[in-house]
Amino acid sequence: xxxxxxxxxxxxxxxxxxxxxxxxxxxxxxxxxxxxxxxxxxxxxxxxxxxxxxxxxxxxxxxxxxxxxxxxxxxxxxxxxxxxxxxxxxxxxxxxxxxxxxxxxxxxxxxxxxxxxxxxxxxxxxxxxxxxxxxxxxxxxxxxxxxxxxxxxxxxxxxxxxxxxxxxxxxxxxxxxxxxxxxxxxxxxxxxxxxxxxxxxxxxxxxxxxxxxxxxxxxxxxxxxxxxxxxxxxxxxxxxxxxxxxxxxxxxxxxxxxxxxxxxxxxxxxxxxxxxxxxxxxxxxxxxxxxxxxxxxxxxxxxxxxxxxxxxxxxxxxxxxxxxxxxxxxxxxxxxxxxxxxxxxxxxxxxxxxxxxxxxxxxxxxxxxxxxxxxxxxxxxxxxxxxxxxxxxxxxxxxxxxxxxxxx
Length: 408
What we know:
Blueprint: E1 2-5, H1 7-15, E2 23-27, E3 40-41, E4 51-52, E5 56-59, E6 69-75, E7 90-94, E8 106-109, E9 114-116, E10 119-121, E11 132-133, E12 144-146, H2 154-162, E13 167-171, E14 175-180, E15 185-186, E16 197-198, H3 201-211, E17 215-221, H4 227-240, E18 243-247, H5 258-264, E19 268-274, E20 276-277, E21 283-287, E22 290-295, H6 299-317, E23 326-331, E24 342-352, E25 355-360, E26 378-382, E27 394-399
Helix pairs in contact: 1-6, 3-6
């Protein structure tokens, strides 16, 4: 086990052991937000044949038209196939999206023609291909529709439906279990006695994990359970989850139990302690192919540890790129602290006419919840030994969620 590691080293140690979860087939209607497991390709041309882009009349185009008067050989209704081809001086009535007869070179919109019995007449220019959707114009057979690792969005659903893909293979949903440590911590539904505190980290982590595509199999507090009972509880969580998150008990105090508890399961410790603030008291271990990440009991530090260590694992398990996007933004307000280890500050990224801007939210202490209440969507990455941040300074930010809301 390595102690007090750099963040990138900690992330690399964990991710090197993460294996993408297997795929599972789900109905297309239930695939929104899931991660496509394999590349998907067009099984046919779309459109499958030349179609009209408007309601009107299909006519031949040779470039030598002497007149623009056509005999209407037939008028097709939606769903009907042409019964005849057309030649010089002939036309077929067609509907939007309907197939075209052989010999059609263009479609004249119905509002542009004058009807005269079985004939139509038209005054204007006609060019080859006018108002026609050609075969394969949208997709050709074999075109890539979606890559493995793409998140299914409404557009993906529409495209796959057009090719009759009623089911889609997506990565299995990661299963996450959460265990709160500390004899003084009680479930949030319980009224705490003097000296006790409600568990807020468990629900916080569960919400983060669900937002990032995971299913929470268990969320419990160890409370005053004996060490053997806590060990059994953790082992049961490892059996039912792909990743277990513990919170609290990660420092080096006399009452801290996370490291020893993880060791007792037979898990292999990867590292303990990360050179960041908040979240320095974080550790990780591997049990068979299950990841255990131990996070601080301080809420802001717990949240930072989740974003930097646990969220990348969830993304990797689903076949997504593990590392969040990094951007440069102008800080709208100041942050007076300086020096110390590499620091991650909660912020709200927005887009203005002058570019990307980030606002530092109040309540940045490791022990505080206030900063989590402001819908922060980024962490500002300040290097070790940094100077105070002045308003107008350029900073690096890490997106916390690919779908994070940006205020306009």
